[in-house]
UniProtKB/TrEMBL annotation:
This is TetR family transcriptional regulator. It holds the Pfam family TetR_C_1. Keywords: DNA-binding, Repressor, Transcription, Transcription regulation. PANTHER family: HTH-TYPE TRANSCRIPTIONAL REGULATOR RUTR, TRANSCRIPTIONAL REGULATORY PROTEIN. The lineage of its organism: Bacteria, Bacillati, Actinomycetota, Actinomycetes, Kitasatosporales. PROSITE patterns: HTH_TETR_1, HTH_TETR_2. GO terms for biological process: negative regulation of DNA-templated transcription; response to antibiotic.
Amino acid sequence: MTKVNREIVVSEALDLLDEVGLDTVSTRRLAKRLGVEQPSLYWYFRTKKDLFAAMAEAAMAPHAAVALPTPDDDWRDWFLDNTRSFRRTLLMRRDGARLHAGSTPVGDLDRIRRKMEFLVASGVPERDAQMAMLAASRFTVGSVLEEQADAGSGDGSVPQVDMPAIDHESAFEAGLTLILDGLVHRTAMRAASTCRQTIV
């Protein structure tokens, strides 16, 4: 029997996720995989929701390990790189976007605050920075949801509409550019307005 602790439970749960998909992950299957009785898992996680929250946090580790921005970074380049890193991390796990959707990033709050401070210090209005980060996050999760759904749709069913295959990465990059362009425009407009008020 494998010696079990919280980290091992989460690691094995993520491996199980990759093998069977989110809909089939269960504490019964996980307990069998670990060679323990199912009730023993409640020592580490009171509910399946708690387990999934821990899995979501662990799955985000590669993104959480990326260096935070520095004052010398160009905020536009950083915004793109940060969002791309988030997408890559979601794609590392089967159903990664579904696992992440709705989770609360408790362990990432300090990093989020420091990212926001960087954008504001770079001249981005605080409210616009907040909304752009939220929009980029939700756009990324939605994009990966679609991409992972397409990857797992080989069920032999016939599509109702004959449409060309989607290049998910190109579509993601196009949408990300539109979000950034909007933020750049709003930041420039706010700076020009502030400048005019100062002159007057």
